Each structure stands twice: as C-alpha cells, then as structure tokens.
UniProtKB/TrEMBL annotation:
One of its GO terms (cellular component) is plasma membrane. This is Multidrug resistance protein. InterPro entries: AcrB_DN_DC_subdom, Acrflvin-R. One of its GO terms (molecular function) is xenobiotic transmembrane transporter activity. It comes from Rhodopirellula europaea 6C. Residues 154-173 are annotated as: Disordered. Signal peptide: none annotated.
Length: 1084
C-alpha cells in the first residue's frame, strides 16, 4: 500500500485526471438519475381472482376460497396468504418472500397456475380464475375529468310544477335517464383524455378510476313475458340466436377469393332493440324494444363520483420502475393547463394527487441543506486547519458524493428520500478519514520533512487505522440491508449509498489527497482561487480566525482537557460508573415511553380522507346526504383557514374535494356498496400552511358532528410509508371457533375505548345485506320443481340471464335479460316470479318455496387459511402515543384475553407488526456486526481486549441521542436509528485512531500514563474536528423549522446530539478504559 501512495504522490497529474473524471461522470450520472419519493423495489404479489356473480361472501368462502387455499398452501416461497370474499368476487393473494426475484416469481406463477387447474370443480356459474403476478405501479398524479352538473330531481320537479300551465311543453324530464346519458358522455370524454395522456412522451401507464363497467340490460316485465308465453331464459336464447357474427368459409372464384360471413350483430343498445322476439299472425314482428326496454349504461346503479361538486372520472397516471416521477407529473400538469380549452362546453380538467410536489419540495430541501452543510464543513475545516489543507479535505465530499451517484446510476437506483438521507448521513463522515490523513501529513511537515515525503509518510502511518475505521463503519450499516418486513424495501439502498461513499472517500484520502498535499503550490488550486476572487475577504478572515483558533485550541488542550484527562485516569471508577448510570437512565427513558418509538414518522403529503359506513342495505340517498354534510363541513373549515390566516393561499388550504358514494374508495364500480361513501381532500403543500394534516382532520371532525346510524366514520390523514394504522389487533380463528370471534372483537374494541386519545376504533368487516335463503316445499318437489329451477329463475329475474359478452372497443360488455329496475326493488315482484314445473304449469314463487331470512358479513377476510378480523384504531399523537398503548395492552390485556378466548389467535398487525419485525431483525443484525467489528479490530490491534475496549464505547453515544430527542421533543423513529448507526461509525473511527496513537506512544517507550495523555493530546484536534464537521453538516437540517424536514429531523438529532456527547466520551472514556484494559492485558 505504501507503494500505491508513493505512486499517487509521484503521478499527481494522473490523480488530477482521475479526480476530474469522477466529478464529470458523477455530475452526468446525477443529472440522469430518476427521481421518486421512495426507492424502487420489486414487490411480487400473486392474485387469484374468481368472479361468482350474485354469490354471498359465505358462498364464495366455502365454494372458492377454501378450495384455492388448500390447493396452493404448499407452494414454496410464499411469505403470507390472504383471502377476501365479498359479494360476487373472491380473491386469494400470495405475497412472496421479500428476497424473491423474477425467477422465483415466475416459478410460483407457473406452479400456482398448475395447481389451480387441478381443482376438481368450482361453482357452476363461477367465472374462470384470473391468475396474475401484479406489477408494481405507483400513482404519480391523477387528472379529474369533470362534466356538467345534472339538475337535481327536486329542482326539475319544481320547474315542472311552476310551468304546469304551459301546454306546449315537451315530454316530462326523466332525471335517471339524464344522469345515465351524462355519465356515458363523461366516460367517453375521459377515455379520450386518457388516450391523449398516454401519448405524452413520459407517460407509460394511465387508467380510468371512478367509473363502473359498461353493461347492457334488456328489461321485460313479468306481465309481458306471460302475455307472449315467454320467459327470461327463452328471451336470452332468442337474442343469442339473432345477434351473431359467424364466419362462413371462403368462396374461391376464378379471379379472386371472397370471405363469407354471417353478420347481424350489434354491440350497442339501439341495435339490440331491433332484434325480433315474437312473430304474430299476419306477419307482424315484435322486437326487443317493443316488449321491453334496453338500458345501455353502467353495471353499478346509484354510484356517485364528484370533484368539486361536478360529476367526474379520474385518469390515474402511474409510474413504472423506468419512469421519472417528477418528469411524468410535469408533463401531465402541462397537458391539463393546455387541454382544458379544447374540451366540450361544460367539461374541465383538474390535476389531483400530485405526488411530485411533495417529492420535489423535500428533495430541494435536502439539497439546499446539503449545500449549506458543505459550506459549514469547509468553514469549520478552515478554522482548524490551514486554508489549503481545508480545501483539499473538503473536496473529498463532492468526490465521494458524485462517485456514489455513478454507482447509483449504473446500479439502477433513483434519487429519493432514502438516498438523500444517505448523502446527509455521510456528509460529515466522509471527511473523517481525510481529516485524519490530512492532519497527520500536516504534522509530518511540522517535523521538518519535505512536502513530498510528508505526504507519503503521513498517509502511510494512519493507513491501517483509516482502512479499519472505514470498514467498521460500512459494516455498522449492514443490518439495515437485512432487516425483515416491508420496510426493508425502502431502506436497503441506504447502506449501499453510504458504503459506496465511504469506500470512495477512503480511496480519495489515501491517493488523491496525498498527491495534492505533496507539493507547495497547485495550479488547480490557483485557478479555483482566481475564480473565487470575490470571496478573498472571507478567506482572509478565515485565515485570521484560524490563527486565533489554533491558539485557543492549544489553550483548551493544555488548561482544560489535559487536567480533566489526568483526573479521570486517577479516578476511573467514578468516570465509568457515572457514564454507565447515564446509559442505564437513557435506556429506561425509552423503555418507559417518555421517548416513544414510531417505525416511521408521519409524512404530510397533503391528502386527508374520511369514509362513512352505514349498515349494508342502507339506501344510497342516506349515504349521499352524509357525504354532502361532510363536504359542507370541510368547506367551512377551509373558510376558517382563510379567516384565521392558516395559509398564505387566498383560497384556503383546500384545493380539491372528491366525493364518492357507492364504493369503499375512489374506484367506484369495484363493488356495489351504496352504504359506503367517502371524501378525499387535496390540500396545498405543507410548507404553505401553518397547520398539519392531522390538525385539519381534527377541525373537520369537530365541524362534522355525529352521524346517527352510521357504523363507522373514519377520518384519516398522512400515511407512514408501508405501515398502516398505529394500532391493529388481528383476531383469527378456524371453523369450530368462529362463534367466539364476535365476542372477542367487542372485547378488544371496549379495551381500546378506555384510552382517551385512541380514536376511529373499527373492524375490517361488518354485517352484510339481509339474505333470502330459498328452499323448495315438499309438495312443489312432487310437481317436478327443483331448487336448480327456482334458483335459475330467481337469478335471471334479479341478477339477469346473461346472453353474451360483446366486444366494444377495448371493453367487454355483458348483455343480460332481467326484470325492470323498478320491479327488482320490491317484494311484490319477488312473490310474482313464475316457475315452470315438469307438468309445464307456471306457479308463483310464493306457492312453491319457503324463505329463511339471514344476515352474514359484507366481507370475509382470511389469513393463512383462518378467518381473520382486524380491530384497528388511530391515535391522537398530541395527547398520547401508540407505543404506550401497545405496551399497556401487552402487559395487562393480552394474557387475560387469551385465557378468555382460547380458540382465538391474537396477532399484532399494522405498524406494531412492522416494528417488531424491524427491531428484532436489527438486534440480530447488530450482534453479527459486533462480531465482524471485533474480528477486524482484533486483527488491527492484535489484541482482543483493545477490540472490546473500542466496541464498549459505542453504546455511550446512545445517551446523547436520547437526550437530543428529549430536548427537541420528537419521537424516536427508524431514521433516529440510522443516525445512531452513523454515530457508532464516527465513535469507532475516532476511537481507533486514538487507541492506535496511544499504542504508538507506548511502543516508543513512554510510561503508560504519559503515553495515554500524549496520545489524547495528539488526537484531540482530529477527534474534535471529525465531530464538529459532522455536526456542522447536520446543523442546517437540525435547525430547519419547515414541516418538510419532519422526516429527517430525528436522524439529525441522533447524530448531532450524540456526537456532542460522544466527543467527550471518546476523549475521556477511551483513555480511561485503555488504562483499565492495559492493567488486564498490557499492550505489546
């Protein structure tokens, strides 16, 4: 290695070429990096979906889900199997292991497809299983296509009454018809907008949300069917036979060939109306349109999706792993700005859910603070080192950072919050080895050596310590790569980026830096000095300050540090017991909940939501009224924000309001759920308002009041990455213990209700619709009436007899025959349904069946082949925290619950599940890390005692980190742990160099006490400087008051406060422990 250092010093021009090459290629790589909020990761999730139209969740669980689960339960590589049964649909989801790759995913897909194909049978009317490996798409932005308002029915009725004397008036206004026509017209415009957005260069995926599927219904009343001796099944058969398109072969003539086709097929309602049904005597033909009505509309009736009070369809623009989030959003926003003028009259566009704004603001914030930190690091270096040395040491930061960008670009990584965290963490650390090398070269020059020889000897002397220090720091970050759980996908890039920067900085400090310090003048530095001529006065001030700082530092070493160190060496027991007490106190503070732990801090993306759920079967108009009341409440809160100046925006902090009725989310049409409605509120950016999303939710909750009759009203604010609600209790049971579940759920809800700061307590399943379970009477069976006949007739009447699937563009449109809409909504029509027996006689349903009325669940969830129901809750973190709630539940509730409900399994879900997985894997990882560090340090010092000495100093940095969280009044998070890991790296670095120098003084023959004090004095400047530069790099983030910095503040707090105390720990505790260890194992 000394030969490599000597070669670098001799060939300093080649090292300049390497340096410039890294800077230029790194700058290019940085410009090419895609930008996103979180890193790219592959999430392999296989879904098996089976449609069973009209079936209840219980039927789907028994007839579909249990069969699929049993078939695929032995598939290797599956982390968790979950299932969901809802009306008309069953889905089994297999989440693959976090470490699965493309080959694993393909193997699982092939194996599952084979196993599903071997299932003997599904219910007769169930669709073919849809098996697919879901691709990870991330919503970048959504465009709301808003149509003209349709007059409310009451408004139209009022107009009709006021003009009742007008005899020239046209036909009466059909409000339902007008809404249907408006919805179809809006859908067509939205599809055109989607096509235009897909044509944008940066956009690769765009889909419609907020609208159901197309469907054509032929509606014929029972009286009409009987009049013409028809049934719904016979009508379906006639239509099926007359709406066909069949190839007839090829007619080969002498000169050409002609294709023969039988073509009389229509895929629109108007064409279906013309299909003949009945031929009357005299040649008259009655068509479908003559006997009934054809509705060419949507599959969901009564659903509502509005944005700012207008009917709307949303176009969701997704990003793939090859797309740049910010570029995609910018192009779409420009399209919205330019495209609104070209829309038909009454239509408009608005951009919603733009994730790029939050990403851009936070990346800009981190970039700004990184530059500020870089400047502060240079100023600190210039105060403690000569200007020339400070410049070359500081230059190692951009070299390391841009070198890491080269790795990220060619490694396929993105510029995201995690990689920016890595840059911030490494900002001060990467100069540590350069400081050690540069300061030692400076010390060798003071011995009278030439610049050339001082550069070689100074770098070579500390080379083993520098290499060991860098490797131990890289190893310290290794557990983050091997964390368990979903959070690993967000953090795995952090140790990679930090490791790349540290390795590059080590190479730079041992080759490029000595080459620059090997000669008195540098043409490159002269050019830089000329370019920075306007800053010459600042340089002059720094030089003057440097002289004063050197004198002050000498006085501190002589008058403060040396006496304190001498006293500490004479009283090691007092020093060790005091610091041990502080460490125990810090651990106790965390364990007691005084500094609560959250896996991820809340990230204010500027989106808030509410979902109101009534009992299944509640009329749509009740849910509609509730959502309108919630919408009025948020606009009142918005007006309050204007009056009380909570935001700089003159229009308030509400930018858009999306209101839905008829689904559990904004994708109306996913299921018929008229008892469920919700609102999605888009706020302006957090930096433009003085209140957080959580505070707005609280004001909204208070303004909305109570909703009598509602099963749940769940308000929500900011997400926490992949984790869900703070509290989730997952209750699971098998068939024989299902009766206990309801009581267990109520017990958990009651317990959570005892905590005053716990809100929005709810379960993920609710009572479903009332069910009529039909059985055939014994006397009807004797007439040849079977349950299959009855069920088929009832299904055709209400769900509809499917005629065929029609292809209309890219849409597959089902064509059905059934009763008119108004007849399907009354019990009278149910009793009048006619069923034909083997004697060809038709009898009303009321004479041949018995009806049993029951009620099941609206949804049934299963986890790993067990029925699962989750009890979830949110926490008002201004009054309490989830950590205390969970700790109390574990201590005082769980064991009692398991005794009371022995057949019910209780598991932690949501954030607690993620926290347990993450923390446990980190603990295991750090055990292996300590072992690897111990091995490296033992090799370095040839002493296991000295390796233990250095490792034992690491926990004491925890004291300052916890103290910082108390002072700053912030929670301990995963990013706090990242700061503590970086802190451990700095502490180890400083300790290695300090112990190494003490060893050298002992080897020179100095007495032990004198060698320890001399080693401490020699390394005081370097230890202080590495800590101060790291703190300087973190200071802008630590002092940042904007809410955008809320994620990185815990990391900066751990590192800054931890280093402030760790500097004293290293300079005092390390020498004291060296003395203790030396008495046990004298240094060689």
């Amino acid at each position: 290695m000394k030969a490599l250092i000597a070669w670098s010093v001799k060939n300093w021009q080649a090292m300049n070429v390497v340096m410039v090459g890294v800077l230029l290629l790194g700058a290019f790589s940085l410009s090419q990096l895609r930008r996103d909020f979180w890193p790219d990761f592959e999430l392999y999730v296989l879904s098996i979906s089976v449609e069973y139209p009209g079936a209840s969740p219980d039927e789907i669980e028994e007839g579909i889900l249990e069969k699929i689960e049993e078939a695929v339960r032995t598939v290797d590589g599956v982390d968790e199997m979950t299932s969901l049964a809802r009306e008309g649909m069953g889905t089994v989801t297999l989440e693959l292991d976090p470490d699965a790759n493309q080959a694993d995913a393909q193997r699982v897909l092939t194996e599952v497809t084979t196993l599903i194909g071997q299932i003997p049978s599904f219910p007769e009317l169930a669709e073919k299983p849809d098996i697919r490996m879901n691709t990870k798409f991330v919503t970048a932005i959504r465009v709301a296509v808003m149509g003209p308002k349709v007059p409310e029915f009451s408004d139209v009725a009022g107009e009709d009454e006021s003009s009742s004397s007008d005899v020239t008036r046209g036909p009466p206004f059909d409000h339902a018809e007008a809404k249907a026509e408006a919805a179809i017209a809006l859908r067509r415009v939205a599809e055109q907008i989607r096509e235009e957005i897909l044509a944008l260069p940066a956009v690769s995926v765009a889909d419609l949300v907020g609208t159901p599927d197309y469907q054509i219904d032929i509606e014929i009343p029972e009286d009409t069917l009987r009049k013409y001796n028809l049934s719904l099944q016979s009508v379906a058969q006639i239509v099926r036979a007359n709406n066909v398109e069949l190839p007839g072969g090829t007619l080969r003539g002498r000169s050409q060939e002609v294709l023969l086709r039988g073509s009389d097929k229509s895929s629109v309602g108007a064409g279906i109306e013309e299909i003949p049904l009945v031929s009357q005597p005299g040649g008259a033909v009655l068509t479908v349109g003559d006997l009934g009505r054809v509705r060419d509309e949507f599959s969901v009736e009564g659903s509502i999706n509005e944005v700012n009070g207008h009917p709307a369809v949303l176009v969701s623009i997704e990003t793939t792993s090859a797309d740049d989030l910010i570029q995609v959003a910018e192009e779409v926003r420009q399209f919205v700005a330019d495209g609104s003028d070209a829309l038909p009259n009454g239509y408009s566009l608005i951009a919603m859910r733009d994730r790029s704004t939050s990403v851009k603001n936070r990346l800009n914030l981190l970039s700004k603070n990184a530059w500020m930190g870089l400047v502060l690091v240079f100023i600190v270096l210039a105060l403690f080192l000569e200007m020339r040395l400070a410049w070359w040491v500081m230059l190692g930061i951009p070299i390391s950072l841009l070198g890491a960008c080269i790795y990220m670009h060619f490694g396929g990584h993105t510029l995201n919050m995690t990689s920016m965290f890595a840059f911030l963490i490494a900002l001060g650390i990467v100069v540590d080895d350069a400081i050690v090398v540069g300061e030692n070269i400076y010390a060798h020059r003071e011995m009278g050596k030439s610049y050339h020889q001082a550069a070689i000897d100074g770098a070579y002397e500390v080379m083993p310590s520098v290499i060991t220090a860098i490797l131990t720091t890289v190893i310290a970050f290794a557990p983050i790569m091997y964390m368990e759980g979903r959070i690993k996908r967000l953090t795995v890039v952090l140790p990679m980026c930090v490791g790349a920067m540290l390795i590059i900085s080590m190479f730079e400090s041992l080759t490029i830096l000595p080459s620059h310090l090997s000669h008195k003048r540098s043409r490159f530095l002269d050019v830089v000095t000329y370019l920075l001529m306007p800053l010459r006065p600042l340089a002059w001030l720094l030089q003057k300050a440097n002289a004063g700082m050197s004198k002050l530092l000498t006085k501190c070493i002589d008058r403060i540090y040396t006496p304190i160190l001498g006293w500490s060496l004479r009283n090691p027991a007092i020093v060790l017991s005091t610091l041990a007490g502080l460490l125990i106190l810090s651990v106790g503070v965390v364990r007691s909940g005084m500094v609560p732990f959250l896996l991820l801090p809340k990230i204010d993306f500027g989106f808030i939501t509410v979902q109101v759920t009534y009992p299944d079967g509640t009329p749509v108009n009740v849910t509609n009224a509730a959502t309108k009341r919630l919408e009025e409440a948020i606009w009142k809160v918005n007006q309050r924000s204007i009056d009380e100046k909570m935001t700089a925006d003159p229009g308030g902090f509400v930018q858009a309001v999306q209101r839905t009725v008829g689904s559990s989310g904004d994708e109306v049409g996913s299921s018929i759920a008229g008892h469920v409605g919700g609102l999605f509120i888009q706020l302006n950016d957090i930096g433009e308002r003085t209140v957080s999303s959580d505070e707005i939710v609280q004001m909204w909750r208070e303004e909305s009041g109570r909703f009598p009759g509602a099963e749940a009203v769940a308000f929500g604010a900011t997400p926490r990455g992949p984790a869900s609600l703070p509290i989730e209790l997952r209750l699971m049971a098998t068939g024989e213990n299902l009766a206990m579940l309801d009581a267990a759920i109520e017990r958990c809800k009651a317990k959570l209700g005892e905590y005053p700061y716990v809100s929005d307590i709810a379960t993920d399943t609710r009572q479903g619709k009332w069910e009529y379970r039909i059985k055939v009477r014994d006397d009807a069976k004797a007439m040849g009436v079977s349950l299959a006949d009855v069920a088929g007739t009832v299904r055709a009447s209400y769900y509809g007899e499917e005629v065929m699937r029609l292809q209309r563009g890219r849409h597959e449109v089902p064509l059905r025959v059934r009763y008119p809409r108004e007849d399907r909504n009354t019990l009278v029509s149910f009793n009048d349904i006619r069923v034909r027996g083997t004697d060809r006689m038709e009898r009303p349903l009321s004479e041949i069946v018995k009806v049993d009325v029951q009620r099941g669940y609206s949804e049934i969830s299963r986890v790993n082949q067990m029925r699962s129901i989750s009890v979830v809750a949110d926490v008002d973190e201004t009054r309490g925290n989830a950590f205390n709630v969970v700790s109390d539940l574990k201590a005082n509730f769980v064991s009692e619950f398991r005794k009371e409900f022995p057949g019910v399994q209780l598991q932690w879900g949501g954030q607690q599940e993620q926290t347990d997985e993450t923390v446990n894997s980190l603990v295991v990882g750090f055990v292996f890390v300590l072992g690897a560090m111990f091995l490296l340090l033992t090799i370095q010092f040839n002493s296991s005692w000295q390796a233990i000495l250095i490792l034992s100093i690491i926990p004491f940095g925890f004291i300052g980190a916890i103290l910082g969280h108390i002072v700053m009044n912030i929670d301990l998070t995963l990013f706090s742990i990242f700061g503590i890991v970086a802190l451990a790296g700095v502490v180890v670095n400083d300790s290695i160099v300090l112990v190494d120098f003490i060893n050298r003084r002992v080897a020179d023959g100095l007495p032990l006490h004198e060698a320890i004090i001399d080693g401490g004095r020699r390394r005081f400047r370097a230890v202080l400087l590495t800590s101060v530069t790291t703190c300087a790099g973190m200071m802008p983030i630590l002092l940042e008051r904007s809410k955008e910095a809320q994620v990185v503040s815990p990391m900066a707090t751990s590192l800054t406060f931890g280093l402030a105390l760790s500097t004293l720990v290293v300079l005092i505790l390390a020498p004291v422990m060296y003395l203790v260890v030396a008495k046990l194992s004298p240094p060689q």
